[in-house]
Amino acid sequence: MTIDYYYMDGSPPCAVVTLTITALGIEDKVKTRRVDEMNDEHLKDDYLKINPQHTAPVIVDDGFALSESRAIAKYLVAKYGNNKYYPQAIKTRALVDQRLDFDIGTLYPKLIDIYFSKILKTPLTEAQLKKMDDALNILNVYLKENKFVVGAELTLADFSLGVCVALMEAFEISIEKYTNIVRWLTHVKSTLPEFEEIITKTTNDGKKLIEIMSKSQ
Length: 217
Hints:
The chain is α+β, with helices and mostly antiparallel strands and 217 residues long. It has helices at 12-24, 45-50, 69-80, 90-120, 126-142, 156-170, 179-191, 195-215, and strands spanning 3-7, 30-34, 58-61, 64-67.
């Protein structure tokens, strides 16, 4: 049975799903399907039937459609990885979920601020930079006594937060002063298969998309 994986170029959430597929070694089970956002493929009826949010990533596995990168990652490791990277111990899993929620609610919006500043060709405001610094400081605290964001083992929280921080760095946000983050990101890069390759492709595709969108402003 093949998993249909719908993705968009330059999408950080899609990078998280691609990392998960690669880490689980299930590439042979997956058929990738590129969604061309610039040509409004995400708004076509066939795609909206799969995902009314008209976003990516989306997977369809034996007729079961699922959107949202963190939900997809959890599903994939549960079905195809025996919950690898998503520990079953209640307290540990709760911390993984909390870190994932921290990413989507606190850190990831700061990455979106960076993207929009590039599209609009305007610098980040002092308020935006302060909120970004606050969010990175929190992550730095989480990592103070941990190799990864939840203890000594790699989890899905590292996938998602790793993508976010690596892309911040790629888009010229310095993380040098957050020494725990620097140490952790080095571990993530060396531990997760193809992490740097996936980040490089996401960065390059993102820059192309930003250039196209900025011309329309």
